[in-house]
Amino acid sequence: MQHSCQALCFSHRPHTTWSPDLSMIAKMGRQRNNLQRKEKADCQEKKLNEIETCNMSEKEFRVMVIEFINQMDEKINNLYKNREELKNGIATIKNMMESFNSRLEEAKDQISSLEDRAEKDSQSE
Questions:
Q1: What sign results for the dihedral spanned by CA atoms 26, 32, 35, 40?
Q2: 67 and 48 within one domain
Q3: CA 29, CA 21: separation in Å to the nearest integer?
Q4: Do residues 42 and 82 both lie within one domain?
Q5: Per the database entry, which stretches of residues form a coiled coil (predicted)?
Q6: What is Dmax (Cα atoms) for the chain?
């Protein structure tokens, strides 16, 4: 079955053929391969950690759990700090918006009074 070139092409130019961007395809393949390698390495690391955990003494296991809890506590504290910083940032933005709105209203009032004055001046002439 014969197809016209325009049916196969993505461009609007007649008499051209569409060809895939080979460098883009190669790049996508490399990215997929890198992701697969990373996932495989993560899986292997997890298996090693499980084996190491099984071979630990009770004392080593407890130390590891305490270290893990300390790391989680530090991460939670960082989240609280970030939360407070976000709250402060939001409050600052809110104050700026209120100030902007106030100035905008003042400008509107001034424009209105100038328009009124211009109208009175034009009527008195």
A1: negative
A2: no
A3: 13
A4: no
A5: 69-124
A6: 101
Q: Give the Å distances, CA to CA, from 105 to 94, 95, 98, 110, 115.
A: 17, 15, 11, 9, 15
What is the DSSP code string of 34-57? Answer: HHHHHHHHHHHHHHHHHHHHHT--
pLDDT digits (tens, 9 = 90+) for 64-102: 889 999 999 999 999 999 999 999 999 999 999 999 999
Question: C-alpha 97: how far from its chain's center?
Answer: 24
Reading the block at residue 85, the tokens are 């910083």
Residues 68 and 124 in one domain: yes
Q: Are residues 72 and 123 in the same domain?
A: yes
Does a structural domain hold residue 17? no
Q: Which among 85, 64, 62, 66 is positioned nearest to 74, based on CA atoms?
A: 66
DSSP SS3 for 76: helix
Global pTM?
0.41
For residues 74 and 120, state if they share a domain.
Answer: yes
Handedness of CA 50, 56, 61, 67 (dihedral sign): negative
> Residues with Cβ < 8 Å from 17, sequence gap 6 or more?
5, 8, 9
